[in-house]
Amino acid sequence: MDTLFFIFSKVVQFCIEPINWVIVFVALSLLFLSLRKPHLCKRFLLFALVDLLLVGWLPTSEVFLRTLEDSVPKAQIAQMSETDFGGIIILGGAIEGGEIAVDRGEISIYSSAERVTKAFELIRKYPDIPFIFSGFSGRLSPNGISEADAFKRLVAEQGLPDKNAHYENQSRNTYENVLLMKPMILELGSRGAKEADTSPKPWLLITSASHMYRSVKIFQKQGFEVIPVPVDYQTGQRLHWGPFDLLEGAKQWNNLLHEAVGLLAYWITGKI
């Protein structure tokens, strides 16, 4: 069932990407042109133009994406002690493992690189705290090494302490991240609580700001409280009404709709 859910989510993600609808509208306009229905041809060309304008004019996506990014306040880690949390969780989605990493012998990092850099910062700052990196691949047909194995190589290349490193390299989406990490978190949490003679503590959670709300809800559904450390913000504190950027707009709309559909699907299936 989880595999079918994963495949279905990828199909839906492709269908909801606004830039893909431009191709659909243009194809339909050409179809109606060949059928000698010029009024329908013009209508779908107009739809394609409106789609491009809505995607490229950045405030149309920023206003919603900013609301999503601000839905979970950032924890003030500087005011906390390492005794306040039990460990660090890093969710995958920023690293290119796969076949390219094997062929080239180098690990590439996506635009969500802050997930990795923030993780490095906290691992250096809290070398005695356990951390878990979770992620295999979000692709339908993955090849090469997993994201977790790629992150493990990056940790070694950066000379970071790895005595408390743990990796989960099978998950394909956020729900599987949490589900497959659950036994590890329980074991490490109970071990730390026993050593310190205290109850299990919440863990720091590193992921993109737009992805944080859904992630926190899934952890809560599984009985875990986490301390959010959102990174990779795509919006600022105020809207910029002038910019038109088709590539940036398409990326923001994709992030927004991906999270919106993910929240809806996870709510319907009882995952949050």
How does this model look, in words?
The chain is α/β, with parallel strands linked by helices and 272 residues long. The chain has 2 domains: 2-69 and 243-268, no CATH class; 77-231, HUPs (Rossmann fold). It has 10 helices and 7 strands. It has helices at 2-16, 18-34, 38-56, 59-69, 98-104, 114-125, 147-157, 174-196, 209-221, 246-268, and strands at residues 88-91, 95-96, 108-109, 131-134, 165-168, 203-208, 226-231. The strands form 2 sheets. Strands 5-4-1-6-7 form a 5-stranded parallel sheet, sandwiched between helices. A two-stranded antiparallel ribbon has the order 2-3. Strand 6 (203-208), helix 9 (209-221) and strand 7 form a beta-alpha-beta unit. The longest helix is centred in the last third of the chain and has 23 residues, at 174-196.
Question: Would you kindly provide a brief summary of this structure?
Answer:
By secondary structure, the protein is of the alpha/beta class. Helix content is 56%, strand content 10%.
Q: Topology, pairings included?
A:
Blueprint: H1 2-16, H2 18-34, H3 38-56, H4 59-69, E1 88-91, E2 95-96, H5 98-104, E3 108-109, H6 114-125, E4 131-134, H7 147-157, E5 165-168, H8 174-196, E6 203-208, H9 209-221, E7 226-231, H10 246-268
Parallel strand pairs: 1-4, 1-6, 4-5, 6-7
Antiparallel strand pairs: 2-3
